[in-house]
Structures are given as structure tokens and as C-alpha cells.
Design a protein that fits this description.
Layout lengths: L12 E8 L4 E8 L16 E2 L30 H10 L3 H12 L2 E5 L2 E6 L2 E7 L5 E3 L3 E2 L2 E6 L12 E4 L5 E2 L12 E4 L5 E2 L11 E4 L5 E2 L11 E4 L5 E2 L11 E4 L23 E4 L6 H8 L3 E5 L4 E2 L5 E3 L2 E7 L5 E7 L8 E7 L5 E6 L7 E8 L1
Parallel strand pairs: 6-9, 7-10, 9-11, 10-12, 11-13, 13-15, 14-16, 15-17, 16-18, 18-19, 19-20
Antiparallel strand pairs: 1-2, 1-27, 3-20, 4-5, 5-6, 8-9, 21-23, 22-23, 23-26, 24-25, 24-27
Length: about 375
């Protein structure tokens, strides 16, 4: 089950999980009622408070940056080997890239609303942008065809861009797609993108970013040399490529799912001066963090949210009982309440679960099947 999180008004909220009849198909919802004094609902985009003692930091290191041997008209700065190779081998002017696409791929290319794009199998890949807008929402359709990909180098060097929104229709953000958009401070990625390519946002000016749950892979050098201080990584990410956050002054990385595969280069700092120290925070009930620390050298700690939640993907029917995993804080009791009607809800406590030393508890409802519909919500005791 995937929960959808919204930044809501300031009145107090409740969290509801809906199950429909005996089909064991659950619908995750967030409902708000001003008359219900429940847990404040806070979006994952807000900074949570870590728990426990101060984490150990990696020792400071002074390393020398090695500028690439590139003839591009850009300020010489350091690159990871992967992104440096991209510069040497794949950077070209947009006109040359588009010409290559026409000659080599033989795809139909046209220009509409300041975008250049190709059409392949009924879907659009954006390959370039000729506009001057500072705030840009990429269209979900062009000529009634879905925009599914942002291609290689599509928005590179668009220095006027300050904000970009990538729609849910897009599944792939390509190789060096927004490279050196030096004015780009705000990136919104809707929950449809599954892969962020190598160097996609390298040398942009974004300070905070949220990777949606739909993303499964973050490419090498994807956010290299961005002034990121915090990043929230969705629960679908299983791999983070080399140097993905190289030379970013991160203080914290927040993970919504299990530990992804990553190596010691992901958060490396190779510029002159002291190394920036980053810590990884993870939700109770997620796994793989000891190995993550071994592989990356990054210290980890539990991430305690200001409200209990259901772990994504944990709900379902087992042994004829509908259940889910509650995640919050260690040794804290959480009350599960149920109702059969959301239009005029009467909430009845049906269980009190004390979260274990891992900060989780498994809830199951043996009576779920006798109701045409049943809704659940969580609150602290």
C-alpha cells in the first residue's frame, strides 16, 4: 500500500487507511476533521528531529579537486569520474544533439511551445528547450501524446530556470538533463519518475530535494556539486550511483524505505577544505542500515516522525486477517481505531499496539471481512 502525503492546513489531522469489503484492496487516504484532536499531520518535506545521541562524524579531509580537461564554455570545477566522462564524451550543443537524433534515430522531431522533442511509439521525449521562462512546468502531453521522458542534455545550461516541475507522466529524467542550470533552486518531481539519470541535476543550485517513492534508481553524479543541505529519498529507491551527491554540503539524508545499494563515493567530498559530514536517518522497521554504513562510511540513526504511520507496502491480508505495520517511536503505544463510514464517522478503538525496540508493531484485524467497508486511523495513546 502506498500512502500519499500532503502538506495540509494547520488544523489537526488524522490518518486513515481504507479497505474495501473482502477484496483486500486497500486505499490509503488522509482525512482531516477540525473536531478530531488527533496527531498533527506533517508532510515528509519538513525536517524531522533525529533521536539519540549526536552521531559520530567522519574525520575532516582535505583533498584537491581535479578540473576536467573540457573545452566546454563553463567554469572549470571538479567532476566525479562518471560525470567527467559524460562531459568529455557526450556533451555537445543542442543543435548538434538534435541533428544527431534526426540522422541516427530517424525519429520525428518538431518544436511546440518552446520544446523540441521526438516521438517514438506514441510517446514524447523532450530533447531541448528554447524558452526563457524562469518558472517552468513541463507539460504532461504534447499534441495529445504523453510526455514520458526528458532526454539527454535537454535543459542543460538553461541558466534562466529557477523552478521546474516534472509531471507524473514522466518516467525517466535523462543523462545530464538539467546539467549546470545554475539558477535552478526548486525542483518538484511528481510521483511517476522511476529513474534519475547520471548527472541529471549536477551543478544546479537546489538546496533541498525530495525524491518521490516511484523512483527506483538515482544515477551517478545526479546531484553532484549542488548546494544540497537535506535530501529525502523515497521508499522505492534501491540503488544510488557513484558520486550521486558528490561535493554536496549535506548534513542529513532522510530515507523512507530500506537501505539502497550505495558505495563510499555517494557522499564523498573532494573539494579543497574540510569534508562535509552527512548522517542518514531511517524509519523504524526498515532494514539494511548496518550494511549501508559499512559500504558508505555514513553514520545512521532512527528517524522519529511527529506522528505514527503505516510502512508503505506493509498492508495486506495474511491468514484471513487484514493487517499492516505501524512505524513510529520505540516503546510508545499507538491506538488503532476503526469506523465503517467516513461521511459520519464513529471511531472505535480496536487495538493498542506498543511499538517494539525497533519502533514498529504489526497490527491485524480478524474481523475486517464482516464489514462492507472498514476504515482505520492511528493516534498516540
Amino acid at each position: 500500500m502506498n500512502l500519499t502525503y500532503f502538506t495540509l492546513p494547520s488544523f489537526r489531522k488524522e490518518q486513515v487507511v481504507t479497505t474495501e469489503g473482502n477484496d483486500s484492496t486497500e486505499i490509503a487516504e488522509v482525512k482531516g476533521h477540525e473536531d478530531q484532536p488527533l496527531v498533527n499531520f506533517v508532510s515528509f518535506c519538513e525536517n524531522p528531529s533525529p533521536v539519540g545521541p549526536a552521531l559520530p562524524r567522519r574525520p575532516n579531509k582535505a583533498k584537491t579537486a581535479t578540473p576536467p580537461n573540457s573545452t566546454l564554455p563553463s567554469t572549470p570545477i571538479s567532476f566525479s569520474p562518471l560525470v567527467e566522462d559524460a562531459v568529455h564524451e557526450n556533451f555537445c550543443s543542442k543543435s548538434l544533439f538534435l541533428a544527431g537524433a534526426l540522422l541516427f534515430f530517424g525519429l520525428a522531431t518538431s518544436v511546440q511551445a518552446q520544446f523540441t522533442y521526438t516521438i517514438n511509439n506514441g510517446t514524447i521525449t523532450i530533447t531541448g528547450y528554447t524558452g526563457t521562462n524562469s518558472v517552468l512546468t513541463i507539460p504532461s502531453t504534447i499534441d495529445d501524446l504523453p510526455v514520458t521522458d526528458i532526454g539527454t542534455n535537454a535543459f542543460a545550461y538553461c541558466h534562466n530556470l529557477t523552478s521546474v516541475t516534472i509531471p507524473e507522466s514522466v518516467t525517466s529524467i535523462g543523462y545530464i538533463a538539467f546539467y549546470q542550470c545554475v539558477g535552478l533552486t526548486n525542483i518538484t518531481i511528481d510521483n511517476g519518475v522511476t529513474s534519475i539519470g547520471a548527472g541529471a541535476f549536477a551543478q544546479c543550485s537546489v538546496t533541498n530535494v525530495t525524491i518521490p517513492n516511484s523512483v527506483t534508481s538515482i544515477g551517478g553524479g545526479a546531484f553532484e556539486q549542488c548546494p544540497l543541505t537535506n535530501v529525502t529519498i523515497g521508499d522505492g529507491v534501491t540503488s544510488i550511483g557513484p558520486y550521486a551527491f558528490n561535493n554536496c554540503p549535506l548534513s542529513a539524508a532522510y530515507f523512507l524505505g530500506n537501505a539502497p545499494h550505495a558505495d563510499s563515493s555517494v557522499f564523498v567530498w573532494i573539494l579543497d577544505g574540510p569534508e562535509e559530514a552527512v548522517s542518514a536517518y531511517y524509519l523504524p522497521g526498515t532494514t539494511g542500515w548496518a550494511e549501508f554504513t559499512t559500504n558508505t562510511g555514513v553514520p545512521t540513526a532512527l528517524w522519529t516522525l511527529p506522528y505514527p504511520l503505516l510502512l508503505n507496502g506493509s498492508s495486506g491480508v495474511q491468514a484471513n486477517q487484514f493487517g499492516f505495520t505501524i512505524s513510529w517511536a520505540t516503546n510508545v503505544p499507538v491506538v488503532v481505531e476503526a469506523s465503517t463510514d467516513l461521511s459520519n464517522p464513529v471511531w472505535t478503538p480496536i487495538a493498542t499496539n506498543v511499538l517494539n525496540t525497533n519502533g514498529t508493531s504489526l497490527f491485524s484485524d480478524p474481523n475486517w471481512a464482516i464489514y462492507p467497508a472498514r476504515f482505520y486511523r492511528l493516534r498516540p495513546q
